[in-house]
Amino acid sequence: MQGILADAVIYLLAAVIAVPICVRFGLGSVLGYLLAGIIIGPVLGIVGAETQDLQHIAEFGVVMMLFLIGLELDPRALWGMRARLAGLGGLQISITMGVVTAAAMALDLEWSVALSIGMIFALSSTAIVLQTFTEKGLMRTTGGRSGFTVLLAQDIAVIPMLAFIPLLALPGLHNAASGDHGGGHGDEGPVMHLIDSLPAWGVTLVTIGAVVAVVLGGHYLTRPIFRFIHMAKLREMYTAVSLLFVVGVAALMLTVGLSPALGTFLAGVVLANSEFRHELEADIEPFKGLLLGLFFITVGAGINFAVFMSAPVTIIGLTFGLITVKGLILYGLAMAARLPRKDRLLFALSLAQAGEFGFVLTSFSVQQNAVPAELGQALLLVIAFSMLLTPVLFIVYEHVSKSLVDPTPTTPHDDIDEKQPVIIAGIGRFGQVVNRMMQMAQVRTVVLDNDLSTIQLMRRFGVKGFFGDPTRPELLHAAGFEQAKVLVVAMDDPKEAIKLVEYARRERPDLHIVARAYDRVHTYALYRAGADDIVREMFDSSLRAGRYVLENMGYTEYEANEAEQAFFKHDRHALLELAKLWNPDLPLAENDAYVARARDLNKDLETALLRHETGEDITDAEDAPDAAPSQPGSG
Q: How many whole angstroms separate alpha carbon 617 and alpha carbon 607?
C-alpha cells in the first residue's frame, strides 16, 4: 500500500509541475504529460517496472475518451458522414498502408510483416490530436473537422485490422507473450488462453462476435439497467453503473483479444440516441481527463532507451521518415479536398504521427506471431517518439500559419445608385432589425455590407443592399454621405466600426451617428470616436430578461418596469462617468481611477435602488438625456 501511494505521489507531482509549465509556454498539456513521464522514467529512473502495470490502468483514459466520442456520434450522423469517412479517411488509410508496406518490403521484410507495419503506421493519435484541437480551439476550423473525420475513420478501421492480423501470422514464428506498450493484453492468463487455442479463422469469428455482442447488448440491456438504478435515487449509483458499463465492455474486449477502446467506442455510438447519454457523459468525463493524462505520462516513462541506444540512428530515421511520409500524403489529400492553405498545413501536421492504437496493433501483431518481437520493440519506440513530437508539430503549425494568408477571391463592389437620408453600415442581425423598422416607418435607407453572401441572402428576401466596404470613403459618398442625416454603424468588426465612426465624425460634425457596441470597452472607444448614440448589442435584451425575472419573483409589472428604468438610468450615467476615465492603453483592472470610480458608482446603484423601493424620484439632472452630447449606453 505504501509503495502504491508513493508512486501516486511521484506521478501526480510530475504532472502538477510539468503540465502548467508547458501550458504556460504554449507547448500544450500533452507535451507536459509526456515530458513528465520521460523525466521520472528514463531520465531520473524514479519509476521503473511498475510503469507497465500502471499503463494498463492508464489506458482506460483512452478507453473512456473513445466512449465519449462515440456518445457524440449519432449512427444516422455517421451514415451521413459515410462519403467523407470513406473518401478522406479511407484514402488516407489506404494510401499510407500502401506506401509504408512498399517501403517495408524494400527493406527486405516479408510482405505479411510489411502489411502489418503498414496498418500500424496508418493510424494517428486520437488522444493527442483531439486533446490539442480542444485546447487550442482548432476543432471549429476546416482542417480540424477534416482531421476529426480521418481520426474517426481510423478508429473504425481498427476493427477489420484486428480481425485481419491473425491471418498474417508467420508459420515459423513463435513470439513469447508480450505485455509491452499499450497492448492492453499483457501476460494475464484469460486473454491468451482463450484465443491461443483458436485457429486464425476462429480468432476472426470471435472478433466479429464480440463486436456484435457489444452492439446488441448496448442497445437492449442498458435501458433496463438504468431504470433499475433510477429506483435507488442515489447519485453515486449512476456513476457506478456508468463505470461498470465501460469497464465491462473493456473486459469483454480484452477477453477475446480485442482493443477495449474500440469496443467502448462502438458502445458509445450505440448509446448516442439513448435518453441516458448525457448522464453517461457527465459521469465518465472526470475520470477520462485524469486517466488520459496518466496515459501520456506512462507513454513517456515507458520509452525503452536501451533499445533506442542499440540503434539510435535507425529509430530516429524511421520516426522522421514516418512523419514526413504521412505528412506528404495528408497534405496531398488536403489539396485534393481543396482545403485552404492554413487548414492543409493543420491537417497534415496534426495527423502525421502514429497513435495509441499503434501500441494496440503492435502488441497484438506480436502476440499473433505476425511481427517478430524484436521488430515490435522498435515499432513501439517509433510510435512513442512520433507521439512525443506531435505537440512540437502543432507549435510549428502555429508559427508557420501566421505567415499564410489564404487568397480570397476579390469581387468588385456594387455600383451604388441610391442616396437616402439613412445609411446602414452592416446588415447582420443587428442591422437587419434597424432596417426593417425603418421600412415599416417608410424611412428610406441605403444598406452597405462587405459580406457578399449576406447581401445575396438579403436580396433573396427582397431587401436591397449593396456589396462593398463601408469604411471606404468613395462608397460612403456614393451612398449619399454628404446629404445623409443618420449613419447607423452596425458592423461586426469592432475595430472597423471605430474606424468608420472616426472618419464620419471628422468629415461630418453635424451627422448623427448611431453605433452598435460589442461591450463596455467598445462603448468607451466609440464614445471617444464621436458616436452620438451607442447601443450595446446585449444590453436591451438583458434588461428585458431582468424585468421578467422580477415579475416572476413577485413584483408587479409596474414595479418591474420602474426597476428596469432605474437601472437603465444609473447605468447610462455610470458609463458617461467611466468613459471619461477610460484609458485605452491600460487594462481596466490596472486603471486605479477607473476602478475607484466604478466602486463608488456601484455603491450609488445600491442607494438608487433603495430610493426606488421607497418611491423617491431618482432622476437627477446629471441623468437627463441632454446631459452630454454623446450617450454611451443609451440603449
A: 12
For residue 536, give the 3-state DSSP assignment. Answer: strand
Question: By 3-state DSSP, what share of the chain in percent is helix, strand and coil, each rounded to 5?
Answer: 70, 5, 25
Identity at 177, one-letter amino acid code: A
CA dist 115 and 186 (Å) reads: 24
> Which long-range contacts link 26-32 to residues 24+ away (Cβ below 8 Å)?
26/395, 26/398, 27/391, 27/395, 28/132, 28/135, 28/136, 28/391, 28/394, 29/131, 29/135, 29/293, 30/127, 30/128, 30/131, 30/132, 30/296, 30/390, 30/391, 31/388, 31/391, 31/392
* Residues 128 and 389 sit within 8 Å (Cβ to Cβ): no
Q: Can you spell out the DSSP letters for 216-243?
A: HHHHHTHHHHHHHHHTT--HHHHHHHHH
Instruction: For 160-175, write each residue's pLDDT tens digit.
Output: 887 788 888 887 777 6
CA distances from 506 to 480, 502, 530, 615 (A): 16, 6, 9, 45
Give me the DSSP letters along 509-521.
TT-EEEEEESSHH
Q: Can you read off the three cell numbers belonging to residue 402? A: 501566421
Distances (CA, A) of 374 to 377, 511, 551, 552, 609: 5, 81, 75, 72, 78
What angle (nearest 5°) sits at the alpha carbon of residue 614, between those of residues 598 and 569? 40
Angle at Cα 147 formed by Cα 142 and Cα 152, nearest 5°?
130
- Is the pTM higher than 0.85? The answer reads no
H helices within 533-632, ranges in order?
A: 539-552, 557-581, 592-613
Write out pLDDT tens, residues 331-360.
Answer: 999 999 888 888 899 999 999 999 878 877
Q: Report CA-CA distances (Å) from 511 to 129, 501, 535, 632.
A: 53, 10, 17, 17
**Start-to-end C-alpha separation, the chain:** 65
